[in-house]
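Duplicate of earlier report; Beta-scruin input re-posted below.
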Amino acid sequence: MSSIERYDALHNTWEEFPTCLPEPRMAMGVAAGENHIWVAGGITKTKRLCIVVDSVWCYDHDYKCWLKRCKLPQPLAFCTLLADKGRVISLGGVTRAQVGEDYSLESVNKVYVMGDSKDDSWTEDVPMPLGCHNVVASNIDGNIYVFGGFRTQSMDQMVNTVYFDKNKNVWEPLCELPKKAAGFVVAICKN
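Output:
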């Protein structure tokens, strides 16, 4: 899929975004921040195969176009993206893993940061405690909170919640979710 729809709150309607994604994909990470929309990784389909990709695109509202950016360090699908103060953060996801002669998708615990969205390079940061994908995450003052998601290793939804303490530079556990949850919404406020 390469089309994008946006919601117009003023008129309570949906409208087609002016430009489509340059490459059709699904299961990608998406984030918005500082007049940009970021799309990273995902799955594309060829005639016979579904392929996990590492490409990154950025829509610049000033120039009204998609710009190809530095690739992720590895192909990822179902990663979670955060955009904050010029940084773009990729959390977890799945990548293609070889098991004997077969291939499968495997959850990863990788955290990648594009330190300055104009710098166009990714660095690996402190990995999350568990490999996971499709998580809900939020960044508050540089502390990252991660909720739920899935693990391909067990094919279960996760009840784990963790946060990255930027002062200690470490992931810390929080209490478990009240029930297994994935694909849910979390709202966080400072109070």
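The longest strand covers residues 94-99.

Merging into the original ticket.
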